[in-house]
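re the bet — no i am not wrong, look at it urself. input seq straight from the record:
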Amino acid sequence: MELVNPRVEDYIASLYTVSDPVLKEMEKLARRLDFPYVGPMVGQLLFQLAKLAKAKTVFEMGSGFGYSAYWFAKALPSDGRVHHTDTDPDNCEQAKDFFKRGGLEKKVTVHAGDALNIIDEVPGDFDIIFIDAAKEDYPACFKKAKARLNKGGLLIADNCLWFGQVFDKNPDPPTRGILEFTRLVFSDKELVATLVPIRDGLIVALKA
C-alpha cells in the first residue's frame, strides 16, 4: 500500500544528501541484501531528535547492522553512549566494523542477544529508547522501555504503519503487536505522542 504519494516521497527523498561514506556503504549493503533499515530520511530525523533532546544515552531495541545506531552516535557528545542490540552475532560484528571505520566505536556498546533481556543488564536510565525489534515484541518492549526512560526522554519506534497492514480487518501477529503497542503509547497519560507518517511510520513520544 502506498502511504504517501510516490511523487511526494521521491521529492522528499531527493532533498536528503548523505555525505558520510560509511553510511553510504551501509545503505548500499542494505539494498543489496534487501535488509530492513530506516533509511536517510528517518536517520536524519533521529539525528535531529537526539540533538534537540541533548541526549547522552540511547538504547536501541533491535539494531541490525547498526544503521540507526550510527546516526544516533553521530549526534551524541563525545561522552555519549549508544547501546546497540541484535540477536544475530554476524550483524553485531558487521556493526562493530562500521562504527570503527566511522570513528564512533568509543560511543557505541554492541550487545549480541535479545534486547528485552539486555536492557535489564545495562545500568541506568536513558534519554532515548528506539524500538525496531520483532513486531510481536513491541508491547513487551514498550513496558520495558517506558520504565527505563528518563523524564523528558524520547521513546521512538519504527514501522508503526507497517506497510499499511495496520488497516487489515484480520491482522497477523506482527500487525497485532504494532497495534497494541500504538494503543499503549497513545493511551499512556505520561507520554505525549505523535505518529509521523514518514516512510513506514515513526512514533515519537515524550515522557512528560
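see?? The two ends are 34 Å apart (CA to CA). told u. also The first strand starts at residue 57 and ends at 61. so pay up
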